[in-house]
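ok so I'm stuck.
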Amino acid sequence: MIADPESRAQAMQIGARPLAVPPAPAALHPYGAGVHPHDTLALSASVVTVGTFDGVHRGHQTLLKRIVARARAAGVASVVYTFDPPPKTVFAGVRQLTPVAEKIRRLSHFGIDHIVVARFDAAYAARPAEAFLQELARLNPLETWVGADFRFGRGRSGDVARLARCFDVRVVSDVACAGGDRISSTRVRSLLAAGREEEARHLHGWPREGCLPGTAG
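replied:
not stuck anymore, here's the structure
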């Protein structure tokens, strides 16, 4: 939820919707998660995590389990806010590990209640940081989980410190593999590029069978 009254007023300024608005109608994924375009979901309370989640690897999976457990303990909805395509794919041309349909399938597997998919294009990238804060405020998060390097808004002007002025922010801890290396989408891409598919599969944790063509699984 909003951390202080002044920041709450800023985040809920003109254009924000009433707080206790039911979720907008969403496509219901076979696993049960509601899938929403950005700027369409409003909740009375939630636990939210924001990130790219490309590959939905074992590090992501640890976080997703934690989010669902904390949301259920609080009696509120769990929400993943993600981007398609990944910003690094748009700006740096890196390989996208999971098409959005496969990413939604994998996220839904962990019992997430709502998945917000922001179409990351030029218009979205040009949004001011305040627009993201307003959108997040409509989810009324009790906790907001992000990576330490999380940025938002035009020109990456928003950071974790700015987010924490408005919300109760929890910074995600790294998850390491047995060899001690940090599990990340970048690491998975590097292993795949080197032809080390079995090592990559160990990090992302998904079997090849059942994954959509073009994914890392």
